[in-house]
Specification:
With 413 residues, the protein is mainly alpha-helical. It is built from 15 helices and no strands. It has two domains: 176 residues, no CATH class; 219 residues, no CATH class. It is 75% helix and 0% strand.
Length: 413
Amino acid sequence: MKNMPDKVNRVASVIGNWGLKLVAFFLMLILGAYGILLLTGDDPPKNAGEIVSISQMASTKSLTEDKRNLIKDFEAYLEEVRVMAKAHGGVLKEDEAQMVLEVFDHLTSSWELTEEEKNDPWLRYVLGMCREGVSLAGKDMRELALLDYEFAAQKGVPQGKIAYENLKKQIEDKESTNESSQEISQGIKRISIEAIDKELEICMNQNQDTQGTISCINEAIEKWDLEVMRVYDLLIDTSPEDVKKALKDAQESWEIYREKQYSILGEVYFDIYNSLDGGTMWLIAQAESEMKIPRQRAINLDYFVNEIQLGMPSFPEFYPEKETEDHQTANLGVKNNYFAIGKALNKKEKAVAAYEAYCIFRDKEVFFMAVLYGKTKDEGFILHNCMVLNKDHIKMLEGIMSDMEQGEIIIPD
């Protein structure tokens, strides 16, 4: 376990004499799950918009400042885990999955709920969340989680009712989804990111002049465009009707966004090229920036293929139920960057058009995800995933603005 994340080691040191880092990790899992339910008061929630006090847990009377900070650390760590899982097709790597399962098995074998704890609806709700989350590691405990959610819902926990309905729908859809996923697994040709990137690298090594390099990149763009359409068609062929409609809307809006983004990229690199009186490297930079758009789209669509292939799409992340400052900052960051680019180029209309096209695509893409995961009524899910897309987009825009600064184009404050 020496490769455990630093945050897990930190939990182990704070907890003190537990001795086993595995126990520390899973305690952090429970605290993290319960962290999204945290308030300082003792009254139970009155509706789904409120959050439960930690004192509602039968075995926990208070929460120290150290543990409050650990909850924040754990939520940040969950975001890292999400990124790692997405990089590996939506599942944890074997060693990561094994660690989670060892933690869960160790804890459940040594911790038996008392009758009082079994009848605590909030504790059962949290246990259900943990069981559902463990499924990411390949141990399907959704049926047990469903029982926990049902109990919590019957005892008046509004979040339990929502979780029960979402999970029940997933389980009911499992048989038909599994049938589709078997067809996919028998005939699907998954994207090989490394293969396309390697072909590009070989081509560029063999054609090192500007025109040859640009030609290699354009060939790669064509390959990624083909991958986008191939994976999109596969999703359309294997998705339920409601998912299919949402996906079509998202894809159409992405195609519009791509053209608007290409347009503003053309303006950016045309101005850089002219401001430096040449500099053919910027023609290559433009081609590379354009390639990133279909490349990322193909990778994202392929991720959703894998979700369906797993047989039961689920979204085990924790996220705030309401809008936070992070959501607002990410929204404003995208807008400010587009407007700064437009002002620097004196091309406000094109920048605004690209910004508006991105926002439409982002919203439709997140709605497609909400339909896929059964979370169309979950405001927190929609806000969270809009924020994730916004943050990724900000990084892309910052790369463009960095090129502009290197090309001696002044970015306004």
